[in-house]
Design a protein that fits this description.
With 132 residues, the chain is of the alpha+beta class. It has one domain: HIT family, subunit A (2-Layer Sandwich). Strands 1-2-3-5-4 form a five-stranded antiparallel sheet. Helix 2 packs across helix 3. It is globular.
């Protein structure tokens, strides 16, 4: 069972920002920017391009709404999107607030944010998401 499956099952806590029956969005605990969010299908699939077509479309539409919520509450020029697929064997989309191209580099040092700050960010994104 992957760490993401454990988060979906509620076995591991997460800073959730949005959820429906099929998808979940939560803050990355090793963010490269404040508001760095992961969007996953609840159904475990390792490789994003192995996801069934309708689920793939649904995942991206869900991620779009999450990105719009991030854009509302995080100071940034854009919300960048990346799919790497090597870190956890469960398909996921990174949504990262960026101001320039270098802001989306996974070579950057990870931020260390307090649990209070993480919860504040999650709550802000979640509130914006619920109003879209």
């Amino acid at each position: 069972m992957t760490i993401f499956e454990k988060i979906v099952a509620g076995d591991i806590p997460a800073y959730k920002v949005a959820e429906n029956d099929d998808f979940l969005a939560f803050l990355d605990v090793f963010p490269i920017a404040e508001g760095h969010t992961l969007v996953i299908p609840k159904k475990p699939t390792d490789y994003i391009f192995d996801i069934e077509e309708q689920e793939y479309i649904g995942l991206h539409l869900f991620a779009k709404k999450v990105a719009l919520a991030i854009d509302i509450v995080m100071p940034c020029a854009r919300v960048g999107s990346a799919v790497v697929g090597l870190e956890v064997p469960h398909a996921h989309i990174h949504l990262i607030p960026i101001n320039e191209i270098g802001d989306i580099s996974f070579q950057k040092d990870k931020l260390q944010l307090s649990p209070t700050k993480m919860q504040e960010i999650a709550n802000s994104i979640s509130e914006a998401f619920s109003q879209l």
